[in-house]
Specification:
Length: 245
């Protein structure tokens, strides 16, 4: 399946819908192709815009539209992105495939309590997936060598890393050649949601495309991060208008 790309503020997004994305990723894993997935919302796009090093990582990754802001931006700029591919849903869908194919899965990141709970819940939900290891994200730089070796030995088909953006993607790229992972993906706060520590927005909020507002109301400390959303909107519209003139 050829992956078509649409650019939003120079970030190359896959234009595949959710089910097509899963089918494409399964094909890549089964054919032995290595893939680095970045789930990008407006905050990630603005990070890539402001940091050259992160932008070069994103330009070489398989970027999916995690955030309704990306879908709206595509609409405003006449680009063929019609559906969100959110990180936590993508993780669950890939786990369902791991359950079917008996893939190896490794989880890295979050707090000790959260990662243990997330690992227990995922293993219970997807018993045929082989959870070959997990480790919390509170490690020192001198421990990284041992962690990389441990992951490499398990040869995971799926490697999910929750260290926050852009740290998780920088870490994956730094060790990519040594991790022996088929598909590696930064998953941000997904383990918090899966463990039950953080509640995802109710379905009605998701359908109204107000999940970002629900999260802000639930965690007011996120307000600084959420400022990326209006900055993203203004930047997209500015570029749209300047391209017309």
């Amino acid at each position: 399946m050829a992956k078509q790309v649409a650019k939003i503020l120079d970030v190359p997004f896959s234009t595949l819908g959710f089910r097509e994305t899963i089918a494409d990723m399964v094909e890549r894993i089964e054919s032995g192709q290595k893939t680095h997935v970045v789930t990008a919302n407006p905050e990630i796009v603005m990070l890539a815009r402001e940091h050259q090093g992160f932008r070069s990582i994103v330009e070489q990754a398989y970027v999916v539209p995690d955030g309704i802001g990306i879908v709206y931006a595509a609409k405003w700029t006449n680009q063929p992105i019609y559906e969100r591919v959110t990180g936590v849903e993508l993780l669950e869908a890939l786990m369902a495939e791991a359950n079917q194919y008996g893939w190896n899965v490794y989880l890295l990141g979050a707090s000790p309590e959260v990662i243990e709970l997330a690992a227990t819940k995922l293993q219970a939900r997807y018993p045929q997936a082989r959870l070959v290891g997990y480790r919390n994200g509170y490690f020192k730089e001198e421990e990284e060598e041992q962690i990389v070796q441990e992951i490499a030995e398990t040869r995971p088909h799926l490697l999910f890393v929750a260290l926050g953006a852009p740290k998780q993607d920088n870490w994956l790229v730094k060790y990519r050649e040594r991790l022996n992972a088929s598909l590696m993906m930064g998953v941000g706060g997904s383990f918090d949601v899966i463990s039950g520590k953080v509640k995802r927005a109710p379905e009605v909020w998701q359908k109204l495309h107000l999940e970002w507002f629900y999260r802000l109301a639930s965690e007011p400390s996120r307000w600084k991060r959420q400022l990326a959303i209006p900055r993203f909107v203004v930047t997209v519209l500015k570029e749209k208008w300047s391209s017309r003139s």
